[in-house]
């Protein structure tokens, strides 16, 4: 049986970033399940030593095309050229704005399936590659199978997968692509006006080692403020479930769960979080989960490494001292 080509498209341009490492790690796992070959498609400007880092996560090959600019239309043409030549069974993109645009253009051009904001991917003998994502106002996890499509594509939420360095690093093949086409952005559109937009910086959550999670069990503003004060003391980022964000206690960028962010801190402390599946999918890659809840039957205790049955307000007062 021919090996299945599993692509990871790196959009970092000049380096192999952590997000790409997460995708390659998942691709490596899928390759074991499906008899696949992990190929990283790297468009941009970087060194061979940087490309070799892909092997740490399990890549078999890097297809590298040097280019001076990061433009969705140019990258689409190069990606299309590579795909038409060597083909792919599944293609994984990050969920950056750039890759969301690139993946949608690609799926439209080749009329292939595209699943957005995946939280998991698996391979089944009967169904092939199966993608999971939130659906129906985030109330369920949908399993998606591409039917009558020569290739499956997806964008993946950050931290949905764990960045994992393999024990036995394989020899990496680097294939330098030579795109023969030409593309001049100056000839295709005219800039009429520009509007400067302030972009919220949520890098603190991406890099946080300790995260405090707030759920509906935090019943008053005083308790919430105490948790925020403890967060500052322990250098922790405070996040919330959907209901907490809907109540206006935290901005949307700090919503964790199926309809928000996925995180992977060293320590996650859940205050008053019952443990609905919609939230658990966003914290499942945390290295250690500590749950504080006054309900000893709260579902979150089923996955917590440390279980504390206590009133959140009384606990946080002692915890902060």
UniProtKB/TrEMBL annotation:
Keyword vocabulary terms for this entry: FAD, Flavoprotein
Cofactor (UniProt): FAD
Assigned protein family: Belongs to the ETF alpha-subunit/FixB family.
Protein source organism: Ruminococcus flavefaciens
GO BP annotation list: fatty acid beta-oxidation using acyl-CoA dehydrogenase
Domain of life: Bacteria
Molecular function terms, GO-annotated: electron transfer activity; flavin adenine dinucleotide binding
Residues that bind FAD: 216, 255-259, 272-279, 293
SUPFAM superfamilies per the UniProt record, alphabetical: Adenine nucleotide alpha hydrolases-like (SSF52402), DHS-like NAD/FAD-binding domain (SSF52467)
Name this polypeptide is given: Electron transfer flavoprotein alpha subunit
Pfam families: ETF, ETF_alpha
InterPro entries: DHS-like_NAD/FAD-binding_dom, ETF_a/b_N, ETF_a/FixB, ETF_asu_C, Rossmann-like_a/b/a_fold
Note on how the cofactor is bound: Binds 1 FAD per dimer.
Domain spans labelled Electron transfer flavoprotein alpha/beta-subunit N-terminal: 6-187
């Amino acid at each position: 049986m021919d090996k299945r080509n599993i692509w990871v498209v790196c959009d970092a341009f000049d380096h192999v970033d952590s997000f790409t490492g997460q995708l390659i790690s998942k691709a490596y796992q899928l390759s074991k399940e499906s008899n696949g070959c992990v190929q990283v498609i790297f468009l941009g400007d970087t060194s061979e030593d940087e490309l070799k880092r892909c092997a740490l996560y399990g890549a078999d090959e890097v297809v590298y095309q040097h280019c001076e600019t990061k433009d969705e239309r140019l990258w689409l043409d190069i990606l299309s050229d590579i795909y038409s030549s060597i083909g792919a069974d599944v293609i994984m993109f990050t969920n950056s704005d750039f890759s969301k645009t690139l993946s949608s253009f690609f799926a439209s051009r080749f009329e292939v399936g595209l699943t957005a904001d995946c939280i998991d991917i698996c391979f089944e003998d009967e169904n092939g590659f199966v993608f999971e994502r939130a659906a129906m106002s985030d109330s369920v996890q949908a399993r998606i199978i591409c039917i009558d499509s020569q290739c499956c594509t997806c964008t993946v939420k950050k931290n949905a997968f764990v960045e994992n360095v393999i024990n036995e690093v394989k020899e990496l093949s680097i294939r330098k692509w030579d795109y023969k086409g030409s593309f001049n952005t100056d000839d295709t559109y005219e800039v009429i006006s520009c509007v400067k937009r302030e972009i919220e910086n949520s890098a603190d959550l991406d890099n946080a080692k300790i995260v405090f999670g707030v759920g509906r069990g935090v019943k008053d503003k005083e308790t919430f403020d105490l948790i925020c004060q403890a967060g500052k003391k322990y250098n922790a980022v405070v996040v919330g479930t959907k209901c907490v964000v809907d109540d206006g206690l935290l901005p949307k960028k700090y919503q964790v769960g199926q309809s928000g962010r996925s995180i992977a801190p060293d320590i996650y402390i859940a205050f008053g979080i019952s443990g609905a599946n919609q939230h658990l999918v966003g914290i499942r890659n945390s290295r250690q989960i500590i749950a504080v809840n006054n309900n000893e039957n709260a579902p979150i205790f089923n996955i917590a490494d440390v279980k504390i049955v206590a009133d959140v307000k009384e606990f946080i007062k002692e915890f902060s001292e």
